[in-house]
Amino acid sequence: MSTLIPFGDAFVTQLFTQDSSNPLLDTPVDSSSLSAVLDSLYKTTDALHEQLFNNICDNVDIFSASYEQMNELTQRVTSLVGQAMTEQSNVIDPTMGTHAVVSHALRRYTAALETSQQHQTQLDSLRVLVTLVEALEDIESILDQQQIVPATEALLRLQANLTANEPYLAHTVHWVRERIEQQKNRLVCILQDFLAAAITFETNRVKIITTGCSDPSPSLLLSLSSSSNDTSGVDLKDVFGCLDQLQLLTTHMSTIKRSMFKHIIKPYLEFDVTADVVVTKDGSKGATLTLRPTTDKQINPLRKLKNLGQILDFCFENLCGADLDHARLFGNLALPELFGLVIEKVLGPAIPTTSKDLGTFGAVSRAAESLEQTSRDHFGWSEKENSLKEYVSHLDRHFARKRGEKVLLEGRNVMLRRLYDVEDAEEEEEKKEKEGEGMGKAGTETQHYRITQTPQLLVLLLTDMIQEASGLVNTHPISAAHLVHATADLLDLYRAIMPSYHRAHLIARPANCLVFRNDCFWIARQLQHKLGASAASAAAAACSAANISATTQPTNTTSSLFPDLAKRLCDEAEQLRLLGNWWAQLAFEQQMHRINLLLERLDGFVTIADHRQRQQCDEAIGGIIGQVRNFSDEARPVLDRRLFVETMARLVDRLLIRLIRMIEDIVDIGAEESELISRSLNSVAQLVSTFDLPGHDATEPEVMARVGSWQKFWLLKDMLEMTMKDIMEAWRRGSLGMFTVEEMCSLVCALFADTDRREAVLDEIKSGRVESVVQEVHSVTPPITVESRRWKDEPVNSNDTPTDLADTDEQDGWGWDEADENIFVETGEENVSEPMPDLEINTEEGWGDADEDLFVADEMHK
Fold it and tell me: Which residue ranges are recorded for the region named Disordered (predicted)?
């Protein structure tokens, strides 16, 4: 029973609190316990009913009084709400409501206020406009009296007033501005008139009066007045002040500056004769500057600089007055251009062109520095642009440029002369002779050849440059270095101009090419020996002078200048030799081209049995001999004896090799053809005379000693008329050792029919059995010249011979262009020219696309 009481309390608590989290309610109970709980609940309910009734009875009076009071309040609230709704309807009524009335009243008030403000604005605008119009009338009246200073000040005040009162002039501001602009334009015109009356430029035309002229009128006039009748007492400084306030002074000062340069400065600096500056004072009213030509013939830069200083003083005193701002403005406008003209027209031409005149430039330098300093003091100019002091301080550099340009111009004038007269040239060359197996005594030989005057003048010019550079190396190192470098420029110019400008002359005849080759080699020798020695002595003298001087120390550039020059001269000499060899090779290849065209007419001797073809072969052989003889006649007078013989040997050797190959290429040679070919080739013996030298006729043994294929050619010519027996006997003796086995087999097959005997002969030839040693076929007579012994013992490879083009693959030939395609006349025949075995044309430098067809491609015979 004790456990049921808490259970009932928990249930009642749950009803009041709606809290089901009490775990006691989850306790299971039986029916009797539940009935007991319900009985307890009923009792509790009855107790609560009773308590509630007692509470109501106790408080019923209070409730009744409160209810009546609340009912009265409710009625009053309802009445107030009704009144409020009535008032609301009265207020929001669109016709008679309070809101409508108030809104109408506000609109009327606003309209009245706006009208009042508009009227006030109009009144204010009228007051301002009246003030501005009165000011405009005052300005107009002042301008009528040409009082520029008050007019300017009034105009500026009027513009400031207009800016401040612009909100009051919404509809009339444009009209007022137009009126102000009209008055401003009028004021500017008056100022311009005053300025034109105060500053006068006369006579745009430069008139030079010669000595004794009866009316030496001034050629140029500038008049500046500080006070004159034309300007009605207006001072020039007042005019400038008004323009400055109107922000127009820079524009008008620029106009004055342009007129000054147009009428005074530029004509003065460009005069071909001298002129004096004459300044005439007109009391306190102003001054006049006049340029008067003088009778002096020589233009003196010192006088020009002095007169320019007078012109600037005149401008400072009369144009700018004491106003530093005006002076500074004029200086900033005029001085940069003026100093540029001074550098171009006065200082530049005054730079000496020779080292001996360098000392005379000191006075000019001091005058230029004084002119610049005076200009800076007067006009307050501090910019570095076109500084005269900076320019004259680099005299060394300017002299170097001017001297280098003059040297190149002189060299160019020499190179452009079309004078091709040749002169004899001699030079000593060291030589060594062999005696027995050892080297014999050494000596010199004199080479005689011909050159033009151009290389001699060029070398004289180069010598003067090196000597002049050696004298300047310690005092003017930049000039010395520039002159040294100009030597290479001059030689580059020679290699560029000569082959191109004189190209038509050079390719006209082989002798011209060979003379040009001599010119190049002569200059190269002078560069290496004479000029190289001058460079070495100049280097020694420069170092000695530098060591003696206490103030001058040789710089690294100075000490290495002349040794570098010697090396550079050697490089230039090598370039000149390459250029000469190219043109000598051109003459050689031109001749070979003509010879190959004639060889093509032989048609390989295949149809020589035909009478017409035999006649054509004879004519072709005669033409070939004539070509070689013509080349010999042209080369002999201009080349050295040794080089002439070597050149002719190369030409004849190439010709004979071609003839040998033509004969060896014949597949079948009959007896008649052999005889005819042999007879036609007999005239080749005339080529011996092409080796003749002055005072000495060449002999066949001498030619054989120089031409490698000479003996082989005549052996082949003899084989054409020999029997098989004779050929084999000569083979066994070793007389035909010049022929290879393949050549012997080919000749035997072409000359003789296919028989068992021929097969036996071929087998013997292929076996290579020779019964006896090789014997000397010809004895050699004394050589053509005293140098022939060395020619026999030594290979042909001197500094003066045209080198193989394959050895100059990395160099350029100079002077070749597209026009080289037409060096030779087109014949329409197949390519027949035979190239030299060592000829390789460089495709990287010096040769263009046109050079691919320079010579007709030769048929290669391997």
Answer: 788-815, 827-849
